[in-house]
């Protein structure tokens, strides 16, 4: 395991009791380099959406614990934030929470299908997420459904029409 992945896992262990206390959900933790600086990012959410006050409380409590444990060697910036509307689905609960919603799916490789005697090939789709089971999603369109293994998906997220 890489040192940075270890930082992420230890941070998850520290933040989990804080989030449980407030009934928040951990979406993801990342330790990434952006614009020359290391950032420890914790993405949290709750039913109805996370507020600035929620983020502030978690940021202060997590910051205190990180200072106490002091396991990160690099200097870094702590960010506790909302995952945002266009966050990619990463965990099974992300898929389950979005069943029935329009989703945008980008595949690693195009798939080919036949419709009305004509062949089509594409690797980007917008459809309704109908199900998620055994690491396979069912994506629904007006006239058909498509089963896609998670391992073939480069990106899946909620489709927002602006």
Could you please describe the fold and organization of this structure?
The chain is an alpha+beta fold. The protein has three helices and eight strands; from the N terminus they run αββαβαβββββ. The protein has helices at 3-22, 52-69, 92-97; strands at residues 25-34, 37-45, 76-81, 102-115, 118-133, 136-140, 145-149, 153-158. The strands form two sheets. The chain has a five-stranded antiparallel sheet with strand order 7-6-5-4-8. A three-stranded mixed sheet has the order 1-2-3. Helix 1 packs across helix 2 (52-69). The N and C termini lie far apart (40 Å). The mean pLDDT is 92.
Widest beta sheet: strand line-up? 7-6-5-4-8
- Poorly predicted segments: none
Largest sheet: 5 strands, antiparallel
Shape type: elongated
Give the quaternary arrangement of the chains. Answer: single chain
Q: What Rg do the Cα atoms give?
A: 19 Å
SS strand fraction: 35-45%
Q: Could you spell the SSE succession in H and E letters?
A: HEEHEHEEEEE
Q: Helicity level, as a percent range?
A: 25-40%
Structural class designation: alpha+beta
């Amino acid at each position: 395991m890489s040192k940075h992945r270890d930082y992420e896992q230890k941070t998850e262990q520290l933040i989990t009791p804080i989030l449980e206390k407030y009934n928040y959900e951990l979406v993801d933790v990342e330790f990434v380099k952006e614009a020359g600086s290391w950032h420890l990012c914790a993405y949290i959410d709750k039913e109805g959406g996370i507020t600035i006050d929620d983020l502030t409380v978690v940021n202060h409590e997590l910051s205190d614990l990180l200072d106490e444990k002091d396991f990160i060697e690099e200097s870094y910036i702590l960010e506790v934030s909302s995952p945002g509307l266009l966050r990619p689905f990463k965990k099974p609960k992300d898929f389950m929470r979005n069943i029935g919603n329009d989703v945008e799916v980008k595949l690693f490789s195009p798939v080919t299908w036949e419709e009305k005697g004509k062949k089509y090939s594409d690797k980007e789709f917008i459809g309704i997420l109908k199900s998620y089971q055994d690491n396979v999603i069912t994506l629904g369109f007006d006239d058909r459904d498509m089963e896609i293994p998670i391992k073939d998906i480069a990106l899946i997220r909620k489709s927002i029409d602006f």
